[in-house]
Amino acid sequence: MPVIPAEESLIEYPSDFPIKVVGVMHDEFTDIIINMVTEHDPTFHAGKVEMRPSTQGKYLSLTVTVRATSREQLDNLYRALSSHEMVKFVL
């Protein structure tokens, strides 16, 4: 993955940054994602999670707003979320 110099980043740090995580509907999905996000953003609060089930209830979309402090932090969080077996995709 190419490294983007800080001066070319479209994101100013620190800033609030929304991330959408979509996974299969499961009782533990939200808690697992909250725990993963908190590992990368200790200031994250579960009250910042927006939940939206799919029309047929098979999937759950979570929007988590993290306090982004660096590109490295966001990259690490995206990698962790994307690699989890319950996650279908991360936007």
UniProtKB/TrEMBL annotation:
<dbReference type="InterPro" id="IPR007454">
    <property type="entry name" value="UPF0250_YbeD-like"/>
</dbReference>
<dbReference type="Pfam" id="PF04359">
    <property type="entry name" value="DUF493"/>
</dbReference>
<dbReference type="InterPro" id="IPR027471">
    <property type="entry name" value="YbeD-like_sf"/>
</dbReference>
<protein>
    <recommendedName>
        <fullName>UPF0250 protein F506_22285</fullName>
    </recommendedName>
</protein>
<comment type="similarity">
    <text>Belongs to the UPF0250 family.</text>
</comment>
